[in-house]
Design a protein that fits this description.
Blueprint lengths: L2 E7 L4 H18 L6 E7 L5 E2 L2 E2 L6 E5 L6 H11 L5 H16 L1
Parallel strand pairs: 1-2
Antiparallel strand pairs: 1-5, 3-4
Length: 105
């Protein structure tokens, strides 16, 4: 079964999380058409994350995939291009603005 972990800033709306999970799950299932595709969200508060040593720096969602071996390189490219595509931009922008608000609080 394909499994994905998505690290996101805390405070995203339910609709943003739904959009993010839906699009990543579809991309993962298209690459690995195996039943029981799973995604887990891990939320991080501003105090729990840093980038280059800067605590509470805004960050984009990070996806880690644990999948069966054997997907051809073209399939891997397709998966990565879809989960980093502009169609996910609203969710990514929401994550950045959410983190920026938390950092300024």
């Amino acid at each position: 079964m394909p499994v994905g972990y998505i690290d996101i800033p805390s405070g995203l709306t339910s609709s943003t999380k739904t959009q993010l999970v839906k699009e990543v799950a579809e991309s993962l299932h298209d690459a690995y058409p195996i039943p029981d595709t799973r995604l887990f969200l891990r939320e991080w508060t501003a105090e729990q994350a840093s980038i280059d040593g800067v605590l509470a720096a805004p960050f984009r969602p990070v996806c880690d995939f644990i999948v069966p071996p054997g997907l051809p390189a073209d399939g891997k490219r397709m998966l990565v291009s879809r989960v980093t595509s502009p169609s996910l931009a609203p969710a990514i922008c929401a994550a950045r603005s959410c983190r920026s608000r938390a950092a300024s609080a």
